[in-house]
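Figure 6 in text form: structure in, sequence out.
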């Protein structure tokens, strides 16, 4: 099994040949990349995440949007645009980190959602060792819980990460 990679890149309007080549190698290696949707409330994720709508790379990419503690897509989390079927929300608002002896920090970023989604792939792959990473990613996307609307939509993609039904097969 290849390691799972995550990425959160700044906005750029120019896709690079080197990035497409790297995505091609990831797809060929059957890796899954979980890309942060971005944090400025835009209708579109950063350009790297838009590759999730490209048939050459779609099964190798998941776009991670941030959800709020009450189970909605965070208003500041970038939305889906053309990658609805590869966009899933996971905890990203008021995430507790950096706990010391007396205090912890609360943070809000889609990059924290990336960790939840990449981490959720591990138990699915453990439960079904012959499945493969792309199929495990598909299972996570198919078993997401609806958020704002029923079905797939431009605001919440496939919905909220829900590992329990993914593990039930």
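Output sequence:
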């Amino acid at each position: 099994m290849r390691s799972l990679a995550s990425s959160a890149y700044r906005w750029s309007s120019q896709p690079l040949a080197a990035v497409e080549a790297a995505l091609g190698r990831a797809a060929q290696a059957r890796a899954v990349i979980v890309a942060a949707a971005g944090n400025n409330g835009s209708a579109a994720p950063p350009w790297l995440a838009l590759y999730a709508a490209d048939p050459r790379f779609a099964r190798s990419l998941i776009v991670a949007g941030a959800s709020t503690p009450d189970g909605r897509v965070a208003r500041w989390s970038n939305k889906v645009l053309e990658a609805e079927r590869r966009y899933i929300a996971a905890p990203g608002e008021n995430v507790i980190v950096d706990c010391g002896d007396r205090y912890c920090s609360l943070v809000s970023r889609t990059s924290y959602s990336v960790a939840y989604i990449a981490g959720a792939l591990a138990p699915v792959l453990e439960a079904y060792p012959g499945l493969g990473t792309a199929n495990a990613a598909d299972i996570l996307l198919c078993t997401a819980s609806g958020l704002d609307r029923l079905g797939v939509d431009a605001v919440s993609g496939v919905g909220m990460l829900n590992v329990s039904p993914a593990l039930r097969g």
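Caption detail: Residues 1-13 have pLDDT under 50 and may be disordered.
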